Structures
1.
Amino acid sequence: MPAPESTSEHFFQSFGPHASKATGARLDPGSVPDRAVNTHCCFCGQQCGITLLVKDETVIGFEPRYDFPFNQGKLCPKGVKRYLQGAHQDRLLHAYERYLESPDGFRVTSYNEAIQRVAEAINRIQAEHGPQAFAVLTGASLTIEKAYLMGKFARVCLKTPYIDYNGRLCMVSAGAANKKALGIDRAANPMSDVLSAEVVWISGANIAECAPITTDYVWQARERGARVIVVDPRITPIARTCDLFLPVKPGRDIALFNGILQLMIENDWLDHEFIRDHTTGFEQLAASVQEWTPAHTAEVTGITEKAIRQAAEWWGTAKTSFLMHARGIEHHSHGVQNCLGAINIVLASGRIGREGCGYATITGQANGQGGREHGQKCDQLPGARDLSNPEHRAHVAAVWGVPPESLPEPGVDAYEIFRKIDKGEIKGLLSICFNPVISLPDNNFVRRMLEKLDFYVAIDFFLSETARYANVVLPGSLQEEDEGIITSTEGRVIKINPAVKSPGEARQDWRIIQDIAHALERPHGFTFESPREILNELRAASKGGIADYSGITYEKIEKQMGVFWPCPSDDHTGTPRLFEKGSWNPIAKGNGPFYFPDGRAHFVVAPYSPPTEVTDAEYPLILTTGRVVSHFLSGEQTRRIGPLLDQCPDPYIELHPELAARLGLADGDWATAESRRGSTTLRVKVVRSIRPDTIFIPYHWGGRKSANQLTIAAQDPISKIPEYKVCAARLRKAESDHAHN
Amino acid sequence: MPIIEPKEFFVDPSRCIGCNACVQACSECDTHKGYSMIQLDFIDHTVSPQTAPMVCMHCDSPTCAEVCPADAIKRTEEGTVQTAKKPRCIACNNCVLACPFGVPKMNTGMHLMMKCDMCYDRTSVGKKPMCASVCPSQALYFGTRHEIEKLRPNSRFISSFQFGEQLITTRVNMLIPHDSDINHLDVATAIHEGAIGNDIFSNIWISS
């Protein structure tokens, strides 16, 4: 239904966003904490260890956790101030329902009544339109226990095929490419392997802002003599002092990788033995990149031939190397191809599966890795099993105590769920840990679809921009109010420990889901008493799968400071580095280190295609979007934390001085950026660190400040990731900010 | 019995990524809770993303203390220059104006000069300061000389700075390239140097 006016004073008083500041015990130097809880940051996929200080059931501060091996005390500004999200005045302490007469658009309702209302709506919609008329959207910041439960809830309780998660906007291109080429979807190496690499190749990863702790690994490799190559349309802070910067034109990464491979072939910078013994498909791939001469590559990528040759030489002749990438090459309508291109140059070098030889995608969300393994994806079952594979269905159905044929078939991706709302096929929605009004492209469409739903229930701890459209809002839990496991960017499974209890009527999310199942009178499989019980079932469900967690326990994680999966038995200590020579995996069964029956990695031909929307006379600029260091994803938490908001209070349009001069814009002027889908008016930031044909807007804000009003809903045909990183736009000077207030 | 090597502060601005973790963490230290005493400078955001963190350099002969008419600024035995003593500080701003590094800040609400005290409550009991603990790029490092020499073979450290006619030696060390032949940083001269870093145009292909 239509959302209440979020700019009204009443709405703001009730739901914010207010910016929290340290006050009271949080500010008093004399405060003595009641306890210190070793846990991890709630934000990104680095999952830095942190110790939360608790007094009177409130997190009052933190202490660096020097003992955790990944970050050794280091934190970014988000981690430093994350404690200010607790005891927040915007926190949802009750269940709410939409109430038109109320000045803020909602009224408090009892938790139990709200659960009953949700159950009645699900029953009504499913009785009238079938079980598939109700959909579920989830997120990759949930613990693995919760993510697992959400997948089971959709398939067993709701019996709907329509569940998908916000990792669809994040990890799926890399995941699909990893599965196609390597047979497994996990960072191949722990970050410590960066330290002994001779060349560190960073493509489309704003490491300093989006994965800040990794910076020290890169700098430290350099102290040991490594050369750092950064490929990005912007000179990000890590690119400022890198050894070679390749200012790629957005959307042309695959052309660069193919061009590098062509030079590797031409100069015989190949590991023939590795290619012969451990891979398939090289000849076909080699034939496919012949056209990518340095001159052609330069023309398409917008990078000089000289720089391309230099990069190829350094990469080609290195003895050890580490290649990492992130959303910069993945958020494309050919994101999978981009990642395959990256993997191809790694495999051709033979530098994988040993110390100092690595490859990794950097995950974005807290559980960007673990959240994509255990069944909240539309086509997936726990253990990274396949919902369309009869054996996989049978294994998981047996663990769940249901007939295999009762499990729905694979559903559709998150954006397609909105298109199905448009078509009238989906009438009801439950969402948790997903804020599509900010995070999906062309979000004016998303807003209309939320309005169109017959019934929408959101589980959230703050009233997000998306939850405003809900009929019922259920008060969920913050990360520090529950326990569970998360898999970090390295593939390291770590343990989140509870610091405080949920306030008011707020509940741990897994309890809310179970309460709905019980109210629906479908309690089978939803009688867990603790996350530990959920994990124990997940261990059985994942056993024998690629993402095998069967040997992982809370105790082992605490003892070892994390366990790298796969960990297939109680006496197994985990697998920090994949693809080591002689390693065993359940697919190859000893035939080789890669996760295919013959144990070989696959070279996959990755043809170049331009972005879906190329620039033209009407929309002559490339718009690319991304993050800033002080905000996280849709900003739902960080825009409510005063010191983080102060660091970056508003989005802006970044552009080159040449372009600024052409448009008559000076630093700080207001300008309107427009695409075929929407527009936003923001201040401009004139910087020499961006390509003159490209503008950049950070995406963490909603409403008229939202960058995703402009982005295109084009998706990769395989991974279904949206093309956030490139669309056509134009820019003009605006008189003032009136357009956005 | 082995001699325990003291821990020192090292700054390497070339590593700085401008993330503000130091600024955010500074205000979490109990000695100056709620106030950040560290300055992160964006050199010239139009020209370069280059940034530089500025902590108190803890001078051997602190100018701030020398110019204080109330003798409110004390240096501890181990060389930490502290925030002005509350009953003595007359909020005259002499120290703020005189410090060549621009470190002391006048807290007008409290009528008190406050400055980086290297997280005295932490460092005095063997803990690392907040900023150097959290710094993701380790542009700010706290450890022994032995450790830094091992970790940063491409750098060496200096602790003297020239400001016009004034030569200042400090307890905090600045890392410079190993092959650099300077013995002190001539700060006044460097003020007029532009920001450095990669140039977007150096490797952009332009259709001919």
2.
Amino acid sequence: MSRWVMIIDLRKCVGCETCIETCRQVNRPPPGPAWRKSITHKIAGNPSGRQLFLTMSCMHCEMPTCLEVCPTGATHRRSDGIVDINLDLCVGCGSCVVACPYHARSIAKSDIMSKENTAQNKDRIGVCTKCNFCLQHIDAGLAQGFKPGSDPEATPRCVWFCLADALYFGDIDDHESEVSKLIQDNKVICMLEELGTNPSVYYILP
Amino acid sequence: MQMISLQLQKPVKQKAWGWLAAANFIIGGTGAGFYLASFFQTLVTGGSASFFESLPFGLISPLLIGIGFLILGVEAGRPLRGCYVLRHPSQSWISRESYAACIFIPFALLDHVSPYLFIRLLAVAAALGLLISQGFIVYRARAVTAWNVPIIPMFFLTSSLASGYGLLLLVNALSELYPDQSMTIIGIIFTVLNLTIWSVYLFGHKSTHFFSATQTLRRPNFLLLSSGLGHILPLLLLLLLLSLQRLTIEPTLSIVSAMSGIFLFIGCTSQKAGILRSAGYYRAIEIRC
């Protein structure tokens, strides 16, 4: 069985935010916090003024803190590791929002939406939304025999459109995959590792 | 090699749970605490239920808990799907709280209409379950530093018992009923216990993130309200009540009882409101390398 992971190479990321804009264009998330965001951090004591650009979204944790608090079962973890939300079951209670330490989830309230937005996002109003690794592309691509991470048809859009080739996606259980090799060959870290959530998004530090 | 922690994003205030969610914890918690305090009252009065029958506690508690859930429904994005929250009692404390409320409300009402010990015990267990669930709902919010501390479930239990007791004192005074000595001692125990847990919560954690998130709660003005007016003053009034009970000067007993109830209720409400609203900061985003 595959387990999808993403690797973000911070040595290559230039902070162009193409991943964020691509996500916005492809997934058209409801107004509110974006599904993918970027944090710019000035490295202290660096005379060249070098900055760290850290793009982040849902970490698709192996032990998701959002899943255990969901009262309806709307939040679920698929066998391939993707943490997804069944929008028809979500009541918008917000318990997953305050449980996610990565600030990856949000609930779009209708009062902040324009009429046009409301019409476009009927099924996403008042429920929790977040990054789902573009699972619709992964599933459709896999069904047609494409390989996620290698073929654009089965790869999350943010990864495929990254201008700096800083984002990688693939199957961590396949030892020959690019992501497995990158993890073996580099010092990778996960965010807030001390919480024991085992995220599926890894970072290669500069 | 030494680990360096880089803070990439400072803690920001959570907006997912607003005043309405806090109101549910306060009103629902007080309702359940009121029922439990009333139950203790019936026990210490020898189970003869003289207080029990004369008090409308069988109605007040379900009403408060019902109001709490209605308020929560306003906050939820899709309130019409409310019944779905009962789907996951095996893992979610919100589901467990909902079950506890669904058991508590009809049984408490039934017990009020036709008092029966077994029904009352079921309602007591459900009220206790509701309070425990509330504490764990807040504790499981792992993104919020001030909430995700192990003492939170215990605090929500003691705070709700104390605020429920405060409301009971007020209702008692309005019904011209005065707590006897044992009931006053129970009130003193609730107040001291909650004040102790509150102090441990505020001053017993060394994490810098926790300390900065809960900074507002340690400001002198807030401490004066939550601990001074909200606990120490009612504690002194309860001690006064204990000594006045020997003299049985009824108007004075009534005033002291009502005052201590009001201040205790205000103190406990300010504690919960402070934790849920003022200290509700998300964890900082950090990487360790």
